[in-house]
Design goal:
Elements (H helix, E strand, L loop, with lengths): L1 H16 L4 H19 L7 H30 L1
């Protein structure tokens, strides 16, 4: 499960770097997978200290990115 989480996050980050906003979705699922790992495996609950803020930051970045797309579309139409 941890390999899946890592793959989601790394591929998602690569996609975001290529200006593909679908990468945020992969990062989101990667974070959720990390939360699952942290809650189901003994001794790794400290992972939540990193994963939960990262999840929030990812959602925030997606919203900001989406907002910028809307601003650019309006500017191009004017």
């Amino acid at each position: 499960m941890d390999w899946l989480a890592a793959a989601f996050e790394l591929i998602g980050a690569w996609m975001v770097g290529n200006k593909n906003k679908n990468g945020f979705i992969l990062i989101f699922f990667g974070c959720l997978t990390w939360v699952f790992v942290a809650l189901t495996r003994p001794g790794v609950s400290g992972l939540l200290l990193v994963v939960l803020p990262a999840l929030w930051i990812n959602i925030r970045n997606y919203i900001k990115w989406k907002g910028e797309d809307n601003v650019l579309a309006v500017e191009e139409n004017n």
